[in-house]
Amino acid sequence: MHPELSLILLTVLAGVGQGLFAFLVGADIRLSGTGGLPADAAVAGAGAALAFTLAGTAASFFHLTHPERGWKAILQWKKSWLSREVVLLPAFQGLAALYGLCAYAGVDIWIRYAVGSLGIVAALWLYLASGMLYAKIRFIKEWSNVYTPINYALVGLATGSVAGVAVLELLGAPAEGTLAALRGAFAVMSLGLLTKAMSYHHNAHIYSSTNAQTATGFSHSLIKLMDMGVSYDHYNTKEYAYRTGLNRSVLRAVALLILFVVPFVVLTMDYMPLLSGSQGSMAVVAALLAVTGAFLERWLFFTDGNHAQNLYYGNFIEKGISNPLLQRAKAGTPAPR
Q1: CATH code assigned at 116
Q2: pTM for the full model?
Q3: Separation of alpha carbons 198 and 258, rounded Å
Q4: Burial class (CB in 10 A: 0-12, 13-18, 19+), 310
Q5: What is the pLDDT at residue 106?
Q6: Fewer CB within 10 A of the terminal residue: the chain, N end or C end?
């Protein structure tokens, strides 16, 4: 599938904001015995989470031909994951803003925790809605599986957790809360690496071989394609099959390294300083790496999607099939194999 930049920006930036907020609130609750996070840290963290999600929301409007009609997407919330995503995103943003306002106004800390907990629930539901939006597209097998919503959640939580640790370190939050967020980051990054690798393995084995005989149901060995109907590239061959000269297997390995492995290693440099009660200094570097890796992972997610109609045009990416549309249509042209 053609990678739409606005959708990549929406899903990555919103995912970072949701994960950042979840780990910020987690660190706040972890420090409940000592009064929670300092108010300025809670306000700034909520503001950062809100900024990420608002940036993603703004980017999503560039995908719409008629942005003024975007509000109508909420009308099908009972049966559409897209509508649920549209409802949950502003709901999460409202709760994140309210959490920051509670911290700024100095309201009772348990009210702040209640609002923050509701925000975490909204963030998790939003991850589910974003992932299920693609998992329900049955004719794109790379997306239509259980790994899609799981990876949407874990990639968002992984990048958000690292960003959360970076924010807490920059604001000089108590080491105990930052350490709790750091340990959570280690956990979700490890789980995210495992499930994403499993997803790549799953997608490499979802297609059975097909040829002209299996497509038509005739067993004759001389079945040949006489005419493709067109002799040039058009919307279907360009929008639903993204061709690039880059090695996708290498890019997947690079995505896993930049998104999970390298940030994990970088964050370990902060563990001992935080354990001793001082502040770490490497989380910002880890966050930049993780977010960069998330953009590459999401680009691959879209470009790896093989629409079922590519069977007709011979555009399957991983099969090394030559595109008959790049050849002159004539009698004797073989069917895609």
Answers
A1: 1.20.1630.10
A2: 0.86
A3: 17
A4: buried
A5: 92
A6: C
